[in-house]
User: Fold Signal recognition particle protein from Siansivirga zeaxanthinifaciens CC-SAMT-1.
Amino acid sequence: LSDKLDKALHVLKGHGSITEVNVAETLKEVRRALLDADVNFKIAKDFTTRVKEKALGQNVLTTLQPGQLMVKIVKDELTELMGGDAEGINLSGNPSVILMSGLQGSGKTTFSGKLANYLKNKKNKKPLLVACDVYRPAAIDQLHVVGGQIGVEVYSDKGNSDPVAISKAGIAHAKANGYNIVIIDTAGRLAVDEAMMTEISNIHKAIKPQETLFVVDSMTGQDAVNTAKAFNDVLNFDGVILTKLDGDTRGGAAITIKSVVNKPIKFIGTGEKMEAIDVFYPSRMADRILGMGDVVSLVERAQEQFDEEEARKLQKKIAKNQFGFDDFLSQIQQIKKMGNMKDLMGMIPGAGKMLKDVDIDDDAFKGIEAIIYSMTPKERSNPGILNASRKQRIGKGSGTSVQQVNQLLKQFNQMSKMMKMMQGGGAKKMMQMMKG
Ligand code: GDP
Ligand code: MG
Assistant:
């Protein structure tokens, strides 16, 4: 018996758990989550293809907790997509020059302050801020306000309209005054244009910064990608700063930017305050993009859909008089999985309401399962052939008695009859039968 049981269980492992249909369904949801989070369509599609391959390769279908494994695969793959471990900033120069680039309003000035504050608190780091946004006097004032807040000196030259000259002078000032980090804040435009690109490119060529950072507003979604590409073409920047992640954006732009320009995201901005800066961690971002709770629940939803589909198939079989012991068994597996007999009854189309107050012990299934496992496939799908000698064999094989086998057959026949009746004509006939 034990051998047969093992074999049957092995076959059944896939039953009632996630199926290939579920995997597809789940991946569709994941893709939707990515698109909602502003991930580029092609990237999202490639991504789900890779996850599918992995899921099938790892035999997700036959594991005990397919849902959890799916979630893990999705998360790992997403994390990898956004880059491995957090990458720091190159501070090898003396002074180390960090150049900010990005559109107007992306958060360059704010981030310059945040970064200066962040580095200032490290051992032996002495940052200087340099104001190279020469078009608006208010921009220079803004950097001075920021510098005042964090106690970092700001170098500026209001009479000078040449950002290249100011940046050079700023670096010279740093050297002369013992600053070992120079953060250069620049001007941006509302959209990519040639004048801005030429200007930032000229500064870049003139000062040869150790680190060129591209600052981007995460709320701008898909546009952020085009901007990133334009800046990268000109500057070949070293890293991306994703700002305004405190908003309700899911930050999918992070994935797309990373995929398109293949540069690491180094820091994120999570608020207007100077302390609202965080090192970028791909795995945390993956959680955010997927909304971990969402993914877990969508996997569960896919599972429910699967159950519904099974119920529909079952209904068809009943209608065609093809309901057999294999179906009976898979119903039992389902109930046991759910841990409640009432639920099983609920799955029998039409029977749920009538039987909802009946309580049945889970242990009651043990004998039933053993008997069914001892049947041949032919006997399971065609119980009519069960004669005395077959029953005897099954009783022996299952460690039960012929009486118990007969009892199960009786129950099975009653159930089939009842289900058949539910199908054609419904509860009315049933009530009549019970009365009569
Ligand atoms: P710049 O034009 O690139 O220098 O952008 P600013 O640094 O002036 O920032 C533009 C606006 O975005 C300002 O109102 C900032 O306070 C705000 N800002 C910048 N970074 C963040 C952030 O991470 N979160 C939030 N909520 N606002 C930010
Ligand atoms: Mg600014």
Remarks:
- Confidence is low (pLDDT under 50) at residues 1-18, 343-358, 425-431.
